[in-house]
Amino acid sequence: MSFRDFVLLFAVCLVWGLNIVITRWIVADVGVPPIFFAATRFAGVALFLVAFLRPRPEDLKMLFMIAMFIGALHFALLFIGLQNAEASAASITGQLGAPFSTLMSMAFLGETIGWRRGLGIMLSFAGVILIAFDPESFNTSIGLLFIAIAAFVGSVGGILMKRMAPIKALRLQAWVGLFSFAPLFITSGLLESGQLDSVTRGGWQLGLAWLFAVVGVSIFGHGGFYTLIKKYDISLLSPLTLMTPIWGVVFGIILLNEPITARLVLGSVISLTGVFVIAVRQNKTLPDAAIVKKMGSGGS
C-alpha cells in the first residue's frame, strides 16, 4: 500500500472512530432522540447524494431490503445502543459484525472455517461479554446488547448484498438514505418525543456534528474506503481498519472523560484479537460482508 493510500485509510478510520464519540454525545448528552437523529442523517445523505440516484437500479425491492438492514434498522438500533452505552465500549462491540458475518455465511452460504477462525469468533464474543457483563452486580449493558443486535442486522444486510449486482459506493449510499429516512421519521414520531426541543438545545454544535456525520462519515469515509477497496484486497484492508475501534476508545476517553477499566482494556484486547484473526483469514464465500460491516461499524 502506498503512503498516500495509507494516509487516506488512516483518515477514514479516524473519522469513523470520532463519529462513534460524536454520536454518543448527540444522543446521550444533548438528548436528541436516537431514531430521529438517524432519520435526519439519512435525509441529509439522500439530499447531498441526490445526483447519484440515477440511473435507477433494476432490483429496487432487493435494494429496499438491503437499505432496511444496513440503513434504517441497523442505525436505529446502533443509536439507541449509543444512548445507553459508553462510546469506548460501543466501539469494540460494533466489531461483532466480523464474526456475525462469518457465522451467517456458514449458515446460509455453505462457508467452512478452520480452527483459527473458529477461535477468532469465540475470542470476539468473549471479549465483548467481558466488557458488557458486570460480575459484581450481575448486570448486562442494555446499550451494548442493542449494538450487538445492530451488528447482527448489518450482517444480514451482507447476505442480501451477495444476491444483488455490484453497485457503486455513493450510489448505494444515496439509495439507502432515500429508503431509510421516511420509515425512521415515522417511527420516531410514534415512539419518541422532544425532537424539535433537542435540536434547539443542541444549537450550532449539533448542526456541525450532523454535517460531520453526513459529509465526513457517509460521503468521505465510505467513499474513501470504497476507493481503497478498488485498489487493494479486503484481506489487507480489514486488519488495518481495526484502527477504527481504537480511535473510538481513545476519543471516548479524551473527549467524553470515559473511565479506563481493567475489564474494558482486557475485553478490548481479547475481542480485537479475535476480529484480527477473522480479518486476516477472510471469508471467501461472502467478501462483501466485510465491506458492509465497515459501513456499519464506523458508520455509526
Strand content: under 5%
Q: What does the overall shape look like?
A: globular
Element-level helix/strand string: HHHHHHEEHHHHHHH
Mean pLDDT: 82
**Helical/strand content category:** mainly alpha
Query: What does the largest sheet look like?
Result: 2 strands, antiparallel
* Helix share, percent: over 70%
Distance linking N and C termini: 27 Å
Number of E strands: 2
Number of DSSP helices?
13
Based on CA atoms alone, the radius of gyration comes out at 18 Å
Strand order in the sheet with the most strands:
1-2
Low-confidence stretches: 286-290
Short description:
The protein is mainly α.
Would you write up a description of this structure?
- This protein is mainly alpha-helical and 300 residues long.
- 79% of the residues lie in helices and 1% in strands.
- The protein is built from 13 helices and two strands.
- The chain has helices at 3-30, 34-48, 60-83, 87-93, 97-109, 115-132, 142-162, 169-191, 195-231, 234-240, 243-256, 262-280, 288-297; strands at residues 133-134, 139-140.
- It has a two-stranded antiparallel ribbon.
- A hairpin with a 4-residue loop joins strand 1 and strand 2 (139-140).
- Helix 1 packs across helix 3 (60-83) and helix 7 packs antiparallel against helix 13 (288-297).
- It is globular, with a radius of gyration of 18 Å.
- The two termini are 27 Å apart.
- The model is unreliable at 286-290 (pLDDT under 50).
Main attributes?
single chain; 79% helix; two-stranded antiparallel sheet; globular; 13 helices; 300 residues; mainly alpha
